[in-house]
């Protein structure tokens, strides 16, 4: 048994998916950060393609990014491709970028991207000596974070962020940057919509925008093009966007038909926006034609089992020529599973009250009060087997580290599985879920598998030897615990079930961990 889902439910789901006239499938980190992440996404794509549920209203696979700005990062080449979805393994694409930038093509990087865990490997080997971190908090968000911190501490690190985050503790240089609302520029959202953001207020004195910082860096570095002119010629965000339009021309994300004025007038536009689609493109693939021609595709793809990048010749053999590619898939179990030493599954995730590593949400009093600390969610059956009481401080250990958090007992987590929210990561405490998580990665996407690790739960208790004067009530009063919890902690069936000389276990601490309802206005 692989999933634990009853066969009749699986058959019913298959029947519905096989018959439905429309289907939108959304995925996010729960899929991307699990075992077989890419395989799951490929299976979803296969289903939509086979059934023709793509390119028409109410249909399509919607693989969203964790942050809206991630879409823009992908479009402009921030995650392994060259700008405008160009292929770094295609010589003609490299030549085209060299022409657009007026640089020597031999100086442009070739080949596939390096995932973050590969970059940590390179830091440990001394092959990355400089790391520029902009607007993210890897010292809380990366798995096996103690290992990640040690790698960062071997490297010269620049942290560019509006806030002092946990990652700032490993920085050699801190560059404070302006927030949204304090700067101007264009952004892309998860549905390809391009919006113009105008500056609402000035940033604090001396604080510059990301754009201004990077522009200043390029000028100080004296970066030149092939003719000896400054490589970066623009001075404003609008001039930068005008250059970007030239780079995007003829590519899937063609934005040559966009201007700042048009973005404001139309309240955003979905690419491509060009002469053929002057008002933008509501949905892609309406003609079932896909950008898979060998000289056009953004990637020659990868081996679906090993993740090895395919060569141009291997890709040409598929002869997709504008057709979508169906890939066979194979199930592989998680890289780490429970063992005798670490008998429970650990999974991590989000709470509705916080965003990622709480860089901003922790500074909101309402959101902080709603969920002020880390905890572990444990099934009541497992809690009973361990004789845990609600709110009891426990230690969770994995092959990588340990944390100490209160237990929240109920039926939210499955039996044999514990859940720890990953938002909390102050170096002053031990409640960061990513002290525990495994840093194995998906061979294709290179995303870490945060969702499946092995762990164990240990009680943290002191001991009390019962004397003739002791009663459960007096002991409860002494240790600030209820009689009921004292009984549960020691598997006592009656208040009179203690004997002189008996050794009782006393939880070292109990902390209330209520989670407010997510939609309180819906309560009746």
UniProtKB/TrEMBL annotation:
SMART domains: LysM. Pfam families: LysM, Molybdopterin, Molydop_binding. InterPro entries: Asp_de-COase-like_dom_sf, LysM, LysM_dom_sf, MoPterin_dinucl-bd_dom, Mopterin_OxRdtase, Prok_molybdopt-oxidoreductase. Residues 462-506 form the LysM domain. Transmembrane segments: none annotated. Residues 67-88 are annotated as: Disordered. The keyword Phosphoprotein does not apply. Keywords: Iron, Iron-sulfur, Metal-binding. PANTHER family: NADH-QUINONE OXIDOREDUCTASE SUBUNIT G, RESPIRATORY NITRATE REDUCTASE. This is Molybdopterin-dependent oxidoreductase. It comes from Paenibacillus haidiansis.
């Amino acid at each position: 048994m692989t999933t634990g889902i009853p066969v009749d439910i699986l058959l019913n789901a298959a029947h519905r998916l096989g018959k439905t006239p429309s289907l939108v499938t959304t995925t996010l980190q729960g899929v991307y950060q699990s075992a077989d992440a890419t395989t799951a996404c490929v299976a979803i794509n296969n289903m939509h393609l086979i059934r023709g549920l793509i390119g028409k209203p109410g249909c399509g696979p919607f693989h969203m990014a964790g942050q809206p700005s991630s879409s823009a990062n992908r479009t402009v080449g921030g995650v392994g491709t060259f700008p405008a979805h160009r292929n770094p393994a295609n010589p003609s694409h490299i030549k085209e970028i060299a022409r657009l930038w007026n640089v020597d093509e031999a100086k442009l990087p070739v080949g596939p991207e390096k995932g973050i865990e590969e970059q940590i490997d390179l830091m440990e080997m001394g092959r990355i000596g400089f790391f520029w971190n902009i607007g993210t908090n890897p010292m809380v968000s990366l798995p096996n974070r103690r290992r990640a911190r040690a790698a960062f501490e071997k490297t010269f690190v620049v942290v560019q962020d509006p806030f002092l985050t946990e990652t700032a503790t490993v920085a050699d240089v801190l560059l404070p940057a302006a927030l949204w609302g304090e700067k101007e520029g264009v952004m892309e959202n998860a549905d390809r919509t391009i919006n113009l953001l105008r500056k609402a207020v000035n940033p604090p004195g001396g604080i510059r925008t990301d754009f201004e910082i990077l522009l200043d860096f390029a000028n100080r570095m004296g970066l030149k093009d092939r003719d000896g002119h400054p490589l970066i010629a623009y001075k404003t965000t609008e001039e930068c966007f005008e250059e970007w339009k030239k780079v995007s021309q003829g590519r899937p994300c063609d934005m040559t038909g966009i201007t700042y004025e048009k973005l404001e007038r139309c309240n955003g536009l979905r690419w491509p926006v060009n002469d053929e689609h002057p008002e933008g493109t509501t949905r892609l693939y309406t003609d079932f034609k896909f950008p898979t021609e060998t000289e056009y595709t953004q990637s020659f793809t990868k081996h679906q089992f090993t993740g090895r990048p395919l060569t141009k010749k291997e890709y040409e053999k598929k002869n997709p020529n504008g057709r979508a590619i169906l890939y066979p898939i194979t199930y592989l179990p998680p890289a780490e599973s429970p063992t005798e030493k670490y008998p429970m599954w650990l999974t991590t995730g989000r709470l509705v009250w916080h965003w990622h590593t709480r860089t901003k949400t922790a500074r909101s009093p309402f959101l902080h009060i709603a969920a002020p600390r880390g905890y572990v969610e444990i099934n009541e059956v497992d809690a009973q087997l361990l004789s845990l009481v609600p709110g009891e401080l426990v230690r969770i250990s994995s092959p990588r580290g340990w944390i100490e958090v209160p237990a929240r007992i109920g039926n939210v987590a499955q039996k044999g599985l514990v859940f720890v929210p990953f938002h909390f990561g102050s170096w002053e405490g031990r409640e960061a879920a990513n002290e525990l998580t495994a840093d194995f990665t998906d061979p294709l996407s290179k995303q870490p598998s945060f969702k499946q690790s092995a762990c164990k739960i240990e009680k943290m208790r002191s001991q009390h030897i019962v004397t003739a004067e002791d009663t459960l009530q007096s002991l409860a009063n002494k240790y600030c615990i209820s009689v009921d919890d004292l009984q549960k902690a020691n598997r006592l069936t009656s208040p009179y079930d203690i004997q002189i000389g008996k050794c009782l276990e006393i939880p070292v601490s109990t902390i209330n961990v209520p989670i407010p309802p997510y939609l309180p206005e819906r309560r009746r």
